[in-house]
Design a protein that fits this description.
This protein is an alpha+beta fold. It has five helices and six strands, in the order βββααβββααα.
Length: about 130
């Protein structure tokens, strides 16, 4: 079994592909990372052509999509760290994309930005007669 040794050089991407809503990254040595595109909203909303247009950067330490202005490091993929983009920034980017394609065939766009989950407060009833 091979393990990732932090003292050694970071693994490098060789090739990427998409399988439905999954991003697959082939690493040197034959290992593969598979993560959902939901972790990276720009990839999730990208067209097939935009997804195919990528560059390996830093000798394979990261991946860059010029049309999407998206960069993902192999270390981030291994840690399953999602995009740190704010919901406001993502919505602005999606609206700008919609304006660019206004002359082309209309495409249904659904944007859902959820607030962080709230902690549910639970009440504990204490029966004083039984507590004493």
């Amino acid at each position: 079994m091979s393990t990732l040794n932090p003292d050694r050089e970071s693994p490098k991407a060789v090739k990427i592909s998409f399988d439905g809503e999954m991003l697959r990254v082939l690493l040197e040595g034959g290992r593969q990372i598979v993560v959902p595109t939901a972790l990276y909203p720009r990839l999730r909303f990208a067209t097939k052509a935009e997804r195919r247009d990528y560059r390996l950067i830093g000798g394979g330490l990261g991946i860059h999509w010029p049309a999407l202005d998206e960069d993902i490091s192999v270390k981030g993929l291994l840690a399953k760290k999602g995009s740190a983009e704010s919901p406001h920034s993502l919505v602005s980017w999606l609206l700008a994309r919609k304006e660019k394609t206004a002359g082309s065939k209309p495409r249904r766009l659904v944007i859902q930005v959820l607030p962080p989950p709230r902690k549910r407060l639970t009440r504990t009833r204490i029966n004083l007669k039984h507590a004493v």
